[in-house]
Amino acid sequence: MRRVMARGMALPGLVGVSLWAAAVAEERTEHFDRDPSWEGRNHRSQAFPPRTVRQDFGYSRSRRAGGRAAGEIGGVLSPAAEPAYYARAIEAKSFQDKLTASGVLACGEGKVHALVGFFNAGTLNEWRTPNTIALRIQGRGDVFYAYVEYATRRWRAGGDSPRPFARVRDPKTGKDEPRGFAARGAVHSWSLTYDPEGNGGLGVVTAMIDGETSVCNLEAGHKADGATFKRFGMLNVLKSADDPGTLWLDDVTVDGATEHFDADPGWEGHQNRRTFESTNVRPRFDFGFSPTHHAGGAAPGELGGLVFRGDIREAGRMASYGDRVGPLTLDRPLRAAGKVALRRGVSDSTTLFGFYHSGRSLAVNPSQDSGFPEGFLGLVVEGPSREGFFAYPAYRIVGERQAYADGSDRPRILPDGKPHDWSLEYDPDGAGGRGRITLTLDGQAVTLDLRPGDHAAGATFDRFGLVTTWIDGNGQSIYFDDLRYTAAQGPTGD
Question: How much is the pTM?
Answer without folding.
Answer: 0.92
